[in-house]
Amino acid sequence: MSHALIVGAGAGLSASLARLFARNNLRVTLAARDTAKLAALCKETGATAIATDATRPDAVAALFAAIEAPDIVVYNASARARGAFTALAPDAVAQAIAISAFGGFLVAQQALQRMVPKGEGAILFTGASASVKGYAQSAPFAMGKFALRGLAQSLAREFSPQGIHIAHFVIDGGIASATRQVPADKPDSLLDPDDIAATYWHVINQPRSAWTWEVELRPWVERF
Amino acid sequence: MSHALIVGAGAGLSASLARLFARNNLRVTLAARDTAKLAALCKETGATAIATDATRPDAVAALFAAIEAPDIVVYNASARARGAFTALAPDAVAQAIAISAFGGFLVAQQALQRMVPKGEGAILFTGASASVKGYAQSAPFAMGKFALRGLAQSLAREFSPQGIHIAHFVIDGGIASATRQVPADKPDSLLDPDDIAATYWHVINQPRSAWTWEVELRPWVERF
Amino acid sequence: MSHALIVGAGAGLSASLARLFARNNLRVTLAARDTAKLAALCKETGATAIATDATRPDAVAALFAAIEAPDIVVYNASARARGAFTALAPDAVAQAIAISAFGGFLVAQQALQRMVPKGEGAILFTGASASVKGYAQSAPFAMGKFALRGLAQSLAREFSPQGIHIAHFVIDGGIASATRQVPADKPDSLLDPDDIAATYWHVINQPRSAWTWEVELRPWVERF
Amino acid sequence: MSHALIVGAGAGLSASLARLFARNNLRVTLAARDTAKLAALCKETGATAIATDATRPDAVAALFAAIEAPDIVVYNASARARGAFTALAPDAVAQAIAISAFGGFLVAQQALQRMVPKGEGAILFTGASASVKGYAQSAPFAMGKFALRGLAQSLAREFSPQGIHIAHFVIDGGIASATRQVPADKPDSLLDPDDIAATYWHVINQPRSAWTWEVELRPWVERF
Q1: Could you tell me the domains of chain B?
Q2: Chain B nearest C-alpha distance from A215 (Å)
Q3: Report field, pTM of the whole predicted structure over 0.90
Q4: In the prediction, which pLDDT does C10 show?
C-alpha cells in the first residue's frame, strides 16, 4: 500500500484518516468540492488536494486520471436535504442522493477499474445510523445512505473474491469536531474521529482470511 | 377509498392491481412512460392512463395536478443497469436509481401533500429481494431498491402517526407473465401477480390498530 | 383446512384467532398451561381446551397424540424474566427461554411430523419487537424471541418447498385487552387482537405462489 | 486489563486468543467441559484451565468464585443438534440451545456482577452466519445463535453506558484448524483463527468514544 484517496474530505474523519495514513507512510490525495479549507491539512500531512465534484462522471474520471492509482479509497461524502418532507425541493433531494450514493458509485467504479487487474486494494464506505434505519424527517438522507450500503454490499459480494476488500462502516453518533465539542459532563459521548480512523486502519490491514464487510461504531453512551 | 394511482404501470403486478381495484369499485389511474401498451387494460378496467416520466419533478407534479387526489398510491417503477460493474455507463446507473428510487420520492411527496391534510391514505412501495440484499453483478439495482426501502421506512415513521399507511413489499422471486410462464414441472414457482395483489389489498384494508409496514412475499419453492 | 391448534392460548390474540377460526368452520383446539380460564371461550367457539406444558417434550407429544392432526398451528406462548440483569434467577431465565422458544420447537416438530407426509399445513409463530431488537432490561425476552425467529426462518427455508407454510409475525406494540384498554385520547394506539387475527388469516389463505414468511404489525402511532 | 477468561475453550479460536492475550501480558483462564485437551496450550501460554459445564448455574458461579474477576470475557461455546428436523431428539436440542445461548447468559451475568461495580470490562460473544440467517436443516443451531445475538444486543444497550464493552462477532465461514486445513488451491478460504483473534483484540482495545457492537468476519472468497 502506498497511496490513499479520500473523497469527501473535510475537517473531521477525513482529516484523521489523512494524518493516520501519512504517519504510516502512505501518500494521500484528498478530493473535495472545496479544497481551500484543506490547505492546512495538506501542509501538515503532505497530502495533495484536488477539487472534485464527486457527483459528475467526468470529474471523477478526471480525478483518477490525474493521480496514481490508489491502493485505498475512502468514500466519505454525504448530504442531507432538510425541511418538511412535503416541502422539500426535488432538486435538493436529487443532489443529496447524488452526493451520498451516486458519487460512491462513480468513485468505486474508477477505483475498481484500476484495482481489479492488480487483484488488490481496499474501498471503504462511510455510513451512518441512517444506513440501516430510515428516520422520520430524514428521508433524503436515508435514501442516500441506504443506497450506498446496497452498493457496498453488492460490491463486497462481487469483488472480495477478486481480492478487493470492500467495507462499510455504520457510524452511529455525532462526531466530535472543533465546532461540536464533547460536553465536559458527558465524556466520550461523541465519536472521536481519530478513534474511528483507527478502526478503518485495522480493517484495511486485515488479512484476507478474515475480512470485515460491515462494522458498527458508536460512543459508549449512545442510544440505539 | 375511491381512487387509486399506480405508477410504473405495466402488464404484470400493475395490471393485477388495476383489475382488483376496479372490481372493488375504485377508479384507477395508471401512470407510465409508455401508455400505448396500456390500452387494453384501460378498456378492460375503465382505468385512465397518463404518460408520465416519474423521474421528472415537473412531470410528476403535472400528473397529480391532472387527476383527483388519490386515496391509494402504488409505486411499482424500477430499473436496472446491466453489464460488468467496471463498464457500466454512469448515465444508465443514474437513470436506474432515478426510476427505482427518486421517482418514488417524487410520487410520495405529491401524494402526501394531498393525503396529510385529510389524515388518510395509503402509499405502497414495491421492493424486491435486492431491497434487503445487495447481490453481485447488480449494484445499480441494489442502490435503487435499498434507497426506496429507506424512503419507505422513513415515511412510515413520519406519516403513519398522521394517518397515512405506508407499506413496503419485498417481492422475492420472479413474477409470472405472458412472457415468463410457470414451468409445468414446477407449479407456482413464480409469483402470480394476482396473488401479490391480494396481499396488497389486504394491507390497504388493515385497520390502523394493526398496520403492516413491511411484508415479504415469495413462491413456496424459492430459495432465500 | 379443518382443524386449528393454538398453543399458548389466553384471553388476547388466541381468543381472537379461536373466534375467527370457528367462524370459518374450523374445529379449534386450545392448548395452555391453565385451561380453567378458557372455559367461556370454549363454550363460545366450540373449541376444546387441553392442559399442556409446552416446554415438556412428553406433554407436547401427548397433546398431538390426543388430537386429530391440525392443519394450522399457531404458537403464541412467550415469557419474560423480570428484574435487574445481574439479579435474574437463572432458573427463571431458562424457563422464559423454554416457553418462548423451546416450546415452539417441540410444537413445530410434532406438527411437521404430521404435515410433511401430507405436503400441506401452516405453522405461524407470534413474535414481538423483541424478536428483531434486543432491548435493555429485557435480555431473557430477547433471547427467547430471537431464538423463535431463528427457528421460524430455518423452518421456512426447509419446509416451504415441502408445501408447509411457515410464517413469523413481528407484533410491535401493546395488545388491547380487558385489562389494558385503549386510551380514549389515543384511539387505536394498541393492537386490536381481532385486527392481528385478520392478518394471520390472510397469511394462512395465501396461495403458495406468494407466501409471506415475515410480516410486521404495529399501531399507526407506535414509534419504531 | 490483567485477566482474560475464555469460555468454551478448544483448539481453534480460543487457542489463538489465549496466545494473543498471553503475548500481551494478560493472565488467561480457560473454561471448558474437558480440560485434558488444553494441557499443551496451558503449558505454552501459562493459562489455567478449569473444568466447567457452562450450562449449569452452579458450575458457572463456582468458576467465577474460583478466579480473580476477569477484565475480558469471551464466550465461544456453541453446539448443534444434527439430523432431520422431524427426528431430532428434544433433549439434544435443549442441550444445544443451552450451550450456545443459556451458557452465554450465565457467564455474562457472573461477569457483569463483577464488572459493573468497577465500571469497566469487555464481554465478547462469538456468533456465526447462523446468528443472522436461519438455514434449512439447522434449526437448533439457529435458535442458539439467534438467542445469543439477542442477549448480546440487549446487554450492549444496557451495559455499554455503564462502561462495559459488549461485542458480537459474526464469523461467517469455516475456521482453519489442524483437522480442517486450507485447500492448497484456495488460499485463505478458511478463517485463520489468529486473524479472527486480531480483530477481537482490536475491538477490546477500542476507546469508548467509538465502540463496535457487531462486526462481521469472513474469508475473502466466502459466498454470503
Answers
A1: 3-217 (3.40.50.720)
A2: 17
A3: yes
A4: 78
